[in-house]
Design brief:
Elements: E1 2-4, E2 14-18, E3 25-28, H1 41-50, E4 60-63, E5 66-69, H2 72-89, E6 95-99, H3 106-110, H4 113-119, E7 122-125, H5 131-141, H6 149-153, E8 157-161, H7 165-168, H8 170-181, E9 186-189, E10 201-203, H9 210-225, H10 229-235, E11 236-237, H11 239-246, H12 251-258, H13 262-274, E12 278-282, H14 284-287, H15 292-306, E13 312-313, H16 323-327, E14 335-338, H17 342-347, E15 353-357, H18 361-364, H19 368-375, E16 381-386, E17 398-401, E18 410-413, E19 419-423, H20 436-446, H21 458-466, H22 476-482, E20 484-486, E21 502-503, H23 507-512, E22 531-536, E23 554-557, H24 559-565, E24 572-576, E25 581-588, E26 596-600, E27 630-636
Parallel strand pairs: 6-7, 6-15, 7-14, 8-9, 8-12, 9-10, 11-21, 12-13, 15-16, 16-17, 22-26, 23-25
Antiparallel strand pairs: 1-2, 2-3, 4-5, 4-17, 18-19, 19-20, 22-27, 24-25, 24-27
The structure holds ligand MGD (2 copies) and molybdenum atom.
Residues 8, 129, 284 line the site of molybdenum atom.
Length: 638
C-alpha cells in the first residue's frame, strides 16, 4: 500500500506501508524521485504512534469530574447548540476557528474553513511558521519558488542559512552529504553546531543578526569582488539604489554586530562569486527572528548579484490551485486574527466559541500559558478535534476523535519538491474517529447551513480547486491512479513582479506599506535576560507530535555558562522571561555558544513549557513571529 506523508515537513514523502496496527512497517518508496527508498525516524514510528493509547477514540464531553464518553450525535448536537447560542447572543465575531499544520493534506487542512466562512466567523492568519519569509520573497521575485531538489543535487556550492536539514529534512540532508563527498563546498550559518554544520564551513553568527551578515556579504560583492553586470542589467531593477543602501554595512560594522570575522564574510562572498550555480537553503528557524523576513530579503538577493536565477530555496509552495474555493472564501466575510494574538485575546475574554483542528496551540504558540488560561474561561466553549489526547484537548469542553494519517484519503503537496501525491485510506479508522471534513459537514447540517459547498464530496471539492491549474496537467483521477505527479512550475528566469524583473527596490513593498529596500537590523541585548533562547526541530518529532509517553524536556546550556554558574547535568533552574517562568532541568550541551540556551520546539519542562516564555510580538513584515528572538534569565534552584 502506498501512502503520502501528511506531516508539515519539506520532504513530503511517498511511503510504502505494510500491514495494519502497531506491527505494520513503513519504508520510503524507492521509485519516488525525492523519497528515494528511505524514510525518517518519525515515519518509521507511525504505526506504533497511530495505534497508541494516546488516541482519542470516541467523542467526549467535559463534566465536573473529567471527560465522559458520548455518541457522535450527542456531541454534535451539543456543539451545534452552543454555536447557535453564541451566534445569537454575541454574533459571529465571537466565534474563532483555529487550525494549523498537524495535517497538511490539502482537503484536511482547507475544507473545514468552509464552516468558518459560512458563519462569517474568525479564522487565523498563519504567522507561526514561514509566512513572513514567503512574503519577503514575493516582494522581490513575484512568486516565491526557488531551487528544487534537483537544483540542490546540481549545485556547485550550497549555503545552509539557519536551517538544520539533518533534523528537519532528511532527504535534503542526504543530498548535502552526497555533495560533500563530491567535494562541493557547503557553508552552514547557525549559532549552534548541528549535524548539518558538521558537513561544511560553520559560520557561528550571533542569533538574530543574519540580515546584517547578508548585507556584509553583499557589501564585499558590490564593493570589492564584483557583481554580474550583464545579469543585473538584463534581469533586475533598482541595483544602484540597492548598492547605496548596502554601502552602509561595512566589514567593521558587520563583524561587530554578527561576531563573524570579516575574513570569513569575504571568503563566503568569494565562493558566491566563483562557484555557480549555488543554492542558498534558507531556514525557517532563522526567519523566526525580529529581522528574519528582512534577512530572507537580503539573502535571496545575493544570487541576483552574482547572476544565478532564483538561487535560493525557502518555500516552493507557490501553486496556482484555487485554495479560496477549497476554503469556501466566497461563502462569507474574510475575518482573520493573527495566530500570535490568540493567547492574549483568549485570556482577556475575547471569543466565546473556539473550534480547534490540526493544531495543538496549548504548547505550540508563544505565550502558550495565556492560551491555556484562556481555555479555562467559564464563558468560553471550546471544541478540539484531534487524533490524540493533546495538551489542548485536555482543556476543551468537547473533544472529537480525528482519523490518523492512514485512515483518511487526501492530496498532499510538498513545500520543497514539485510532486503532488494522493494518499488513499488504507486503515480502518480507529474507534469512532472521523476526518476533518466529515465533522464540519455534520455541524453544517445541524446549523441549517444551505450552502452546497458544505455537502460537497471532498474529492470533488479538490477537483474544483485544481480545475483551472496550469501546474497540474493531468486529471485528478490520474493522480489517484499514479500515486504522484510532477507539477509544472514557471521557469526560473521568469519574475512575476510588476516590472517583470528581480526588484532590488520592491514596488510591491511600497504598495503594501513596507520599506521598498530591506530594513536591515538587529536588536540590542538585555542584561536582565542575558540568554538568547532558541528552539528548533528534533529528528524524531514533528512539532508537538509523535510522542507516546509523557514528555519532560531539558534546557540545554553551554559548558561555559554552566561552568560559570556552577550548574551540572540534571540541576533544576528557573527560566524567567519578562512575563513568565518555568522550571527545567539542565542538560550541558557542547554544541551551544556561551549566551545561548536551547530547547526542542514545544518542549515541556518539569514545570511549565518553553512556549510560555516566548515572545508574541511581531516582525515588521506580514505579522510574522519572532520566537527565536526570545530572551531569558536562568536562576539555579538548588
Ligand atoms: N524532524 C522534524 N522535521 C521537521 C519539523 C519538526 O518539527 N521535526 N518541522 C517542520 C516544520 S513545521 C518546519 S517550519 C521546518 C523547519 O526546519 P528548519 O528551517 O530547519 O528549522 P528549525 O529546525 O526550527 O531550526 C533550524 C536552525 O535554525 C537555527 N537558528 C535559530 N535562530 C537562528 C538565527 O538567528 N540565525 C541563524 N542563522 N540560525 C538560527 C537553529 O539553531 C536551528 O539549528 O521543519 C519541518 N521538518
Ligand atoms: N517553541 C517553538 N514553537 C514552535 C516552533 C518553534 O520552532 N519553536 N515552530 C512553529 C512551527 S514552524 C509550526 S509549523 C507550528 C506547528 O504547530 P501545530 O500546528 O500545533 O502542529 P503540531 O504540533 O504538528 O500538531 C498539531 C496537532 O494536529 C493533530 N492532527 C494531526 N493530524 C490531524 C488530522 O488529520 N485532523 C485533526 N483534526 N488533527 C490532526 C496532531 O495530533 C497534533 O495534536 O509550531 C510552531 N511552534
Ligand atoms: Mo513550520
Amino acid at each position: 500500500m502506498k501512502v503520502a506523508c501528511q506531516r508539515d515537513c519539506l520532504d513530503g514523502c511517498f511511503l510504502i506501508l505494510e500491514g495494519e496496527g502497531p506491527e505494520a512497517s513503513v519504508r520510503g518508496d524507492p521509485d519516488h524521485p525525492v523519497t528515494k527508498g528511505f524514510a525518517c525516524p518519525k515515519a518509521l514510528n507511525f504505526p506504533r504512534y497511530y495505534s497508541s493509547g494516546r488516541r482519542v477514540l470516541y467523542p467526549h464531553v467535559r463534566t465536573e469530574n473529567g471527560f465522559r464518553r458520548v455518541s457522535w450525535d450527542q456531541a454534535l448536537d451539543l456543539v451545534a447548540s452552543k454555536l447557535e447560542e453564541v451566534m445569537r447572543d454575541h454574533g459571529p465575531q465571537e466565534v474563532l476557528v483555529f487550525n494549523y499544520s498537524g495535517n497538511t493534506g490539502l482537503i484536511n487542512f482547507n475544507y473545514p474553513l468552509r464552516l468558518a466562512y459560512a458563519l462569517n466567523a474568525y479564522r487565523v492568519q498563519y504567522t507561526i511558521c514561514d509566512e513572513a519569509g514567503e512574503l519577503a520573497l514575493e516582494l522581490h521575485y513575484g512568486m516565491r519558488y526557488g531551487a528544487f531538489p534537483e537544483d540542490l543535487e546540481g549545485a556547485e556550492m550550497v549555503v545552509v542559512w539557519g536551517a538544520n536539514p539533518a533534523s528537519s529534512s532528511v532527504h535534503a540532508y542526504r543530498i548535502l552529504a552526497d555533495l560533500k563527498v563530491r567535494g562541493v563546498p557547503i557553508w552552514v550559518i547557525d549559532p549552534r553546531r548541528t549535524r548539518t554544520s558538521l558537513l561544511g564551513n560553520h559560520v557561528r553568527v550571533k542569533p538574530g543578526t543574519d540580515s546584517v551578515l547578508a548585507a556584509g556579504i553583499s557589501w564585499y560583492l558590490i564593493n570589492e569582488i564584483g557583481v554580474d553586470g550583464d545579469f543585473i542589467s538584463e534581469y533586475t531593477a533598482g541595483f544602484e539604489e540597492y548598492a547605496r543602501h548596502i554601502s552602509k554595512y561595512t566589514p567593521e560594522l558587520v563583524e561587530g554586530v554578527t561576531g563573524v570575522p570579516r575574513r570569513v564574510v569575504r571568503e563566503l562572498a568569494e565562493d558566491y562569486s566563483r562557484l555557480k550555480p549555488s543554492v542558498t537553503y534558507i531556514g525557517v528557524g532563522m526567519q523566526k527572528t525580529k529581522y528574519g523576513a528582512e534577512a530572507v530579503r537580503v539573502i535571496s538577493l545575493i544570487p541576483a548579484l552574482v547572476g544565478v536565477h532564483r538561487g535560493f530555496f525557502f518555500c516552493n509552495s507557490s501553486r496556482d490551485f484555487d485554495t479560496a474555493y477549497l476554503q469556501g472564501r466566497h461563502l462569507g466575510e474574510d475575518r482573520r486574527v493573527n495566530m500570535l494574538d490568540v493567547p492574549s485575546l483568549l485570556s482577556s475574554g475575547r471569543f466565546k466559541f473556539l473550534y480547534v483542528y490540526n493544531s495543538n496551540p496549548a504548547v505550540t504558540l508563544p505565550r502558550s500559558d495565556l492560551f491555556r488560561e484562556g481555555m479555562r474561561r467559564e464563558d468560553l466553549f471550546s471544541v478540539v478535534h484531534d487524533v490524540m489526547w493533546t495538551e489542548t484537548a485536555e482543556l476543551a469542553d468537547v473533544v472529537l476523535p480525528a482519523t490518523g494519517m492512514f485512515e483518511q484519503e487526501d492530496f498532499v503537496a510538498s513545500w520543497w519538491h514539485p510532486y503532488l501525491a494522493y494518499s488513499p485510506k488504507v486503515w480502518e479508522p480507529l474507534g469512532e474517529s472521523r476526518p476533518n471534513w466529515w465533522v464540519v459537514q455534520r455541524l453544517a447540517e445541524r446549523l441549517g447551513i444551505e450552502a452546497p459547498e458544505l455537502r460537497e464530496d471532498p474529492i470533488r471539492a479538490f477537483e474544483g480547486a485544481v480545475r483551472g491549474s496550469k501546474m497540474l496537467r493531468v486529471p485528478v483521477e490520474e493522480v489517484m491512479r499514479r500515486g504522484y505527479v510532477k507539477l509544472e512550475y514557471p521557469p526560473k528566469d521568469e519574475y512575476q513582479t510588476p516590472s517583470g524583473r528581480i526588484e532590488f527596490v520592491s514596488s510591491l513593498a511600497r504598495e503594501l506599506g513596507y520599506s521598498p529596500l530591506p530594513s536591515i537590523g538587529w536588536e540590542a541585548g538585555d542584561r536582565r535576560y542575558p540568554f538568547a533562547l532558541i528552539t528548533s526541530s528534533v529528528p524524531h518529532r514533528t512539532s508537538s507530535q509523535d510522542s507516546i509517553s509523557p514528555d519532560e524536556d531539558t534546557i540545554h546550556v553551554s559548558p561555559e555558562d554552566a561552568g560559570r554558574m556552577g550548574l551540572r547535568d540534571g540541576d533544576p533552574v528557573i527560566l524567567r522571561s519578562p512575563w513568565s517562568e518555568a522550571v527545567a532541568r539542565v542538560e550541558i550541551d557542547g554544541s551551544l555558544p556561551a549566551g545561548v540556551v536551547w530547547a526542542r520546539r514545544a518542549a515541556k519542562f518539569s514545570k511549565g513549557a518553553v512556549n510560555d516564555l516566548l515572545r508574541d510580538d511581531k516582525q515588521g513584515i506580514a505579522g510574522g513571529n519572532v520566537l527565536n528572538s526570545s530572551r531569558v534569565n536562568l536562576i539555579p534552584l538548588a
